[in-house]
């Protein structure tokens, strides 16, 4: 009896290995896109060099996972693009002249995407239907007007600090805290007044008057102005805080590398915007570009975004950046918000003037 049991166990141990995990079941529209992409045979990509894919260094992993998900074997090329304002203008020019687009998929923030949408420079897709066909329930908020783009990541504004000079408990937890006397001269802000226009235009708890008053007081607190993503002046001890950082993803990545950097998403101003991926009208490989945007919504794509860039889409279940938010609500600036509030850009100019005056003292 024991011998027969042992034989059965040995047979099980040396049996054929378990079958590989089945490929994801794709819906009919996505299946058709996969067939078209296979004929296209490639992806031509270009977006701002310092973001999303680590200046192209992480793209082999991105494209490898993308190909595996769809069962494709597409080659790709990548070239860093100029500023987003230049990209948006270029997309419109390409669409109006019916020339080939510089990239099969573009990445834009909501303000610059609005320029491209007004210029009818991106292809319209039913992103919710396509996402459903790959098993993703896509929130309405993630889709740009007329299906001109889909959000895949979130930029969260925050307070970044030198963790050697400031403890996690001692760091300001609100924007109001940054106005305390002990921070005077120890704070840097940005020359483009990052984030404050969002409070003025989109956050009902702030509005223009309250935001203007805060920025005026902050201008008396700051000791200088530095670019978003530039932690050098913090690490050198020139400043202890940066208010506000355009996107705490840079701090997330620096912490992973062991840098003494911390960040706080202020409890009185949890604000963020969406990063969108769109397919230009003149894309050489529109099916492949569409599939890449869809892939970034999958768990695999969201993991890639988090691991490569320190951000993901807060609108999707399991978002790591959403877990960092204080409380359950936040102001999310979409392209629709920018369309409804064109005065937001006026607030930017006003806040820049105030902060630059204070930052030169």
List its salient traits.
2 domains; D-Maltodextrin-Binding Protein, domain 2; disordered N terminus; 11 strands; 361 residues; alpha/beta
What does this structure look like?
By secondary structure, this protein is of the alpha/beta class. It folds into two domains: 28-153 and 273-323, Periplasmic binding protein-like II (D-Maltodextrin-Binding Protein, domain 2, 3-Layer(aba) Sandwich), CATH 3.40.190; 156-272 and 324-359, D-Maltodextrin-Binding Protein, domain 2 (3-Layer(aba) Sandwich). It has 14 helices and eleven strands. The protein has helices spanning 2-13, 28-40, 59-70, 84-97, 110-118, 127-132, 196-202, 207-219, 232-235, 249-256, 286-295, 299-309, 335-340, 344-359; strands spanning 42-45, 75-78, 106-108, 150-156, 158-162, 187-189, 222-225, 241-245, 261-264, 271-278, 331-333. The strands form three sheets. It has a five-stranded mixed sheet with strand order 7-6-8-5-9, with helices on both faces. Strands 3, 4, 10 and 11 form a four-stranded mixed sheet that branches. Strands 1-2 form a two-stranded parallel ribbon. The termini are far apart.
Total domains: 2
| CATH class bucket of the largest domain | Alpha Beta
- Structural class by helix and strand composition: alpha/beta
Count of distinct strands: 11
Major sheet summary line: 5 strands, mixed
Give a brief outline of the structure.
The protein is an alpha/beta fold and 361 residues long.
Provide the fold topology.
Blueprint lengths: L1 H12 L14 H13 L1 E4 L13 H12 L4 E4 L5 H14 L8 E3 L1 H9 L8 H6 L17 E7 L1 E5 L24 E3 L6 H7 L4 H13 L2 E4 L6 H4 L5 E5 L3 H8 L4 E4 L6 E8 L7 H10 L3 H11 L21 E3 L1 H6 L3 H16 L2
Helix pairs in contact: 2-11, 4-5, 7-8, 7-14, 8-14
């Amino acid at each position: 009896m024991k011998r027969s049991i042992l034989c059965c166990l040995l047979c099980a141990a040396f049996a054929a290995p378990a079958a590989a995990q089945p490929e994801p079941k794709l819906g009919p529209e996505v299946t058709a896109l996969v067939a078209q992409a296979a004929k296209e045979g490639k992806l031509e990509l270009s977006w701002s060099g310092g973001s999303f894919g680590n200046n192209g260094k992480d793209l082999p992993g991105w494209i490898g996972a993308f190909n595996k998900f769809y069962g494709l074997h597409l080659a790709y090329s990548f070239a860093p693009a100029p500023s987003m304002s230049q990209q948006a203008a270029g997309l419109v020019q390409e669409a109006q002249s019916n020339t080939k687009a510089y990239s099969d998929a573009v990445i834009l923030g909501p303000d610059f995407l609005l320029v491209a949408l007004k210029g009818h420079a991106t292809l319209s897709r039913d992103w919710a239907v396509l996402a459903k066909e790959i098993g993703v329930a896509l929130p309405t908020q993630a889709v740009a007007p007329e299906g001109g783009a889909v959000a895949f990541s979130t930029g969260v504004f925050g307070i970044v600090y030198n963790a050697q000079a400031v403890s996690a408990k001692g760091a300001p937890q609100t924007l109001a805290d940054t106005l305390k006397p002990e921070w005077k001269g120890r704070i840097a802000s940005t020359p483009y007044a990052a984030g404050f226009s969002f409070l003025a235009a989109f956050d009902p708890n702030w509005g223009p008057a309250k935001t203007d008053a805060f920025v005026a007081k902050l201008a008396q607190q700051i000791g200088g102005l530095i670019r978003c993503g530039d932690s050098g002046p913090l690490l050198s001890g020139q400043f202890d805080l940066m208010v506000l950082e355009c996107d705490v993803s840079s701090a997330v990545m620096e912490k992973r590398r062991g840098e003494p950097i911390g960040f706080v998403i202020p409890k009185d101003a949890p604000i963020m915007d969406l990063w969108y991926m769109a397919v230009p009208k003149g894309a050489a490989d529109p099916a492949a570009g569409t599939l890449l945007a869809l892939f970034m919504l999958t768990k695999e794509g969201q993991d890639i975004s988090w691991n490569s860039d320190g951000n993901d889409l807060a609108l999707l279940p399991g978002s790591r950046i959403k877990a960092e938010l204080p409380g359950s609500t936040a102001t999310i600036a979409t392209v629709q918000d920018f369309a409804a509030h064109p005065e937001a850009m006026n607030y930017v100019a006003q806040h820049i003037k105030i902060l630059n005056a204070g930052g030169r003292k």
